[in-house]
Amino acid sequence: MPHPVVTAALSRREREVAQLLAQGLSNREIAERLYLSERTVDNHVHHILAKLGFDSRVQVATWVARK
User: Fold this and answer.
1) What residue spans define the domains of the chain?
2) Which residues of 2-12 are buried (b: 16+ CB within 10 A; e: fewer)?
3) Closest Cα to residue 41, out of 13, 65, 62?
4) pLDDT digits (tens, 9 = 90+) for 1-41
5) Phi/psi zone of residue 20: left (φ > 0), alpha (ψ -120 to 50 degrees), beta?
6) What is the pTM of this model?
7) What is the reported pLDDT for 25?
8) What CATH code would you report for 4-66?
């Protein structure tokens, strides 16, 4: 499990993306919901994975579910 200081570093938008990712939405679906480009969502997902020290979207979804 990631260190709490690291998880606090997620931006508001990254937390929104993580929540939608945990619901099983694709990057395209997240982009449509948040009125962002798919590339921007891809960048957010990359940053979320890096900040939390995870390798997969499934790990992010599990982390969100446990919060």
Assistant:
1) 4-66
2) eeeeebeebee
3) 13
4) 555 555 568 999 999 999 999 999 999 999 999 999 999 99
5) alpha
6) 0.86
7) 98
8) 1.10.10.10
